[in-house]
Every structure is written in structure tokens, then in C-alpha cells.
Amino acid sequence: MKLVLFTFVVSLALLAGPGWADARDDLLAADRAFSDLSVAKGAHAAFLAYMADDACLYEGRHPPILGKAAAADYYARAEAADPAYPSSQLRWTPLEARVSPDGVLGWTRGTWVWRANKADASSKTVTGYYVTEWRRQGDGHYKFELDIGGTDTP
Asked: Which domains does the chain have, with CATH numbers?
């Protein structure tokens, strides 16, 4: 009887465990690819590429940005107002991910670094932290629905 119970428990662990680990690894990989795109194409382009249509963005300097269309408008105005935007770079590192048992919902948290060149040729660096909530899409890829970030104390 103990052997049957042991075999059953081990079988369940083998079936369930890797799925959760795979989903967590997929989510971490998505967040890393998101950061890589930010470095390669700019933060705004990366956010729009990985953002769900109904996403909510909270960064603390203004009211929440609700929806991808509103984010695209906000980014366009921000880029037009800041000629130094093309020289800026936002990079982040996910430190942890958790996923629902079915792998559909999950979140990542980590740290970020933003660097920009100023008009006087000096540079500015700001660091912070974030939490991003993700949903697996019908095509199997993750898009984020909620992103919350804050800056470290200077």
C-alpha cells in the first residue's frame, strides 16, 4: 500500500511540478526579452509590444495610464517633449516570478536602471523596482496587463 501511495504522489509531482516550473521559466524569459527589446528599440516601443490592450500602468508621477491606446498617446507626447529620449535606455532584471497552477496568470518583480545623456553631455542614472502582472495569450505568449514601478530613494 505504501509503495502504491508513494508511486501516486511521485507521479503527481512529476506531472504537476515541471509544468509550473516551465510556466515560471517562460514568464521570466518573456520579461527578459521585454527588457532586451527596451534596450534595442527603446522603452516605449518595448512596452507597446508587450502590453495587453487593456493594460494599466502605474509609475507614481501621474495618474494611471489605462489602456494601450492611451499609453501610445502618452509615449508620443513624451518623446516629442524630450529630444534626449533616443539617448535614454531602460533596462531591468526580473528577480522572481510566480504563476498560477494553470500557467495563465503570473507576475514578475525585479529592479530597473534608466540612463540618459543630458544636454550638457553629463549623464543621469535612476534606479528602481517593479512588479508586472502577466496573462498568457491564446498564442502562448505572455502580455502584461499591469505594471507598477517606483524609484529607489536617492
From this structure: 2-151 (3.10.450.50)
